[in-house]
Amino acid sequence: MVYALNFTYSNSGTNITITGYIGSGGAETIPSTIEGLPVTGIQTSAFEGNEKLSSLSIPSTIISIGNS
Length: 68
Fold this sequence. Notes:
- The protein has one domain (2-65).
- It is 0% helix and 49% strand.
- The protein has no helices and eight strands.
- Strands 1, 2, 3, 5, 6 and 8 form a six-stranded mixed sheet that branches. A two-stranded parallel sheet has the order 4-7.
């Protein structure tokens, strides 16, 4: 598992997918790039059951969002 800021993610070599949240809560912003690659997806269940977040800003680079 790879970590950046308050998120876990996977790196396909061409883009990044957010796989989970490990922050302390409050308002968060998903970065548009990690490791110089565009963040283009949010995996299914990446934020499921997380009651710590009060809001989440999603960049325009996101083209895929999984369920839950």
